[in-house]
User: Fold this.
Amino acid sequence: MLKSSWYLLFLLIPTGVYGQSHSQSINIRVSATVQETIELITIESLDLRNANRQESILTLNPVQDSGAGKMVARGTPGSEFRLDYLRQRELTNTRGTGTLLVIYNISGNHIDEQQTSELLEQEVRDLEFNDDGEFYIWIGGIVDLSEAEPGSYEGDFTIEIEYI
Amino acid sequence: MKFVATISKFRSRKYFFSFCVYILLLLFPLFLKAQEVDFSRYGTYTIDLENISMGDLIFDGPVVSGGGIYEVELIDSYIFSIIGVKYLDVGLSITGDGELLLDGNSENSGDPQKSVPFTLKAAYSNRGQNNIADAKIIPVAGGNIGYIRFPVSGREQQPPGPPPPPPTKPFDQAEFEETAFLYLYGEIDVGNVVSGNYTGTITIQIEYE
Assistant:
């Protein structure tokens, strides 16, 4: 009788002292959407030789004129991007002195069709790549030749595209 | 003397030997943790770990292939609340995947074009406010494994006080609860990878200690 009482006592000790304490476990997901690097490819340079001339002002319409420059931007299909460009730029005379100021204007389209492209004002910047990840851009401009020295002029067009 | 007398009541060596082994087995855990009284093991306490942030820990904004390091900073971190008994310590374990995989597909693990290295960072605040200014860094090792033990309510460098007096009414944990906060953030290093959705997992486990 004594023997069984001892065992009973010790069996009760471990179960009586320890209560339940709770723990919790949670999983969360980490995610990132990686987009393709944006490429800008120049297809045709802007050519002012065939621009419309009214007195000393040369005008090249990016929607209608064949001398407009052409670029294609390539990125992640369907993703939105922001487009910005330097509207004014100086062209330098490669054979002499003097500069020309060109005021650029551009148009863009989801398809490779200049005539249906839309003029892109600087306020209209949020655009979208098409299903093939492409967006077409045409570049025109206005140049005032009234104070220009004879010569050949060259310059850059600066455009910046980034995902939104 | 009384103990000796008790022993003498065992009529055979066999019973005495069994008795000694049983006593040693009972005392064995006490030998291992002789300097610590684990109050949390003597009651039924619950602990709640709840998302304050919604959805995933997202590396937001345009993440571009080949773009290098992108960071979710502490100020933009993913936040959990930890609601528990304020005078108890909790042990917090964090395990994160070492890389985010294209479409979460484990077959892409280790593929430099379909995986993005992920570095997990974490911090906690136990001063009762969801305030990153109070956040203390949780050490996270290279394998994105972190562990820290801290009181649910910070003791501000004071030694822990005595346990509360035994309640004279049924124990109501809500009267002794406090909220601590867990912040998860980190960075990814985006190489020249295939575009798409990259995902990984972080597991958080918390328990009283």
